[in-house]
Amino acid sequence: QVQLVESGGGVVQPGGSLRLSCAASGFTFSSYGMEWVRQAPGKGLEWVTFIRYDGSKKYYADSVKGRFTISRDNSKNTLYLQMNSLRVEDTAVYYCAKGRDSNGHYGMDVWGQGTSVTVSS
Amino acid sequence: DIQMTQSPSSLSASVGDRVTITCRASQSINSYLNWYQQKPGKAPNLLIYTASSLQSGVPSRFSGSGSGTDFTLTISSLQPEDFATYYCQQSYSTPQSFGQGTRLEIK
Predict the structure, then answer these.
(1) SS (H, E, C) A75-113
(2) Which of A63, B3, B30, B90 has the largest count of CB atoms under 10 Å?
(3) B15 to chain A, closest Cα gap in Å
(4) Cβ of B43 and A111 within 8 Å?
């Protein structure tokens, strides 16, 4: 079945780094745009970043620009989020999500279960 | 950047009620508006994409309408499983953005 499974979350000190992974299965990963969305404890959803199906275009929220990098390996059906210079306000559950299309215009129809990132000293 | 504003922020309703949630964009987003349902501790679930298209597997009691800056999500007859938080999201331009959410509670 169509599935996304995130991993790599954990507890990190401010200024530290983490790399999240999202393993995809059950669909042609290389045909779809992919996104990361996060949710701070008790808060709403926040869009973080998008990567086009072929990795040719990447977009970021202002809050993470210059610190986070999205990438994908279509040969491994895996999406990544490299998070550097982490801040307390980056604490959240991070979801990877599949776009309904290659360019991210038609919503996100498959979501992972989320991985928790806590930034704390 | 485009700001999305939902109203109301919370809503109490009964099983069988008809419910409408609105979402307003700070500028025109054509029809690039999506609706999600989220239950506590779970990932969001896509209900409606491009303002009015029903996602596969979603019950027909959910419907969406609107274009430009003003959009609505309607649940025609609330079922017990519909009590959740609902989010709109614009996918017209980056950075994409979500509304703040509407919490739908049982009256």
Answers:
(1) CCCEEEEEECCCCHHHCEEEEEEEECCCCCCCCEEEECC
(2) B90
(3) 25
(4) yes
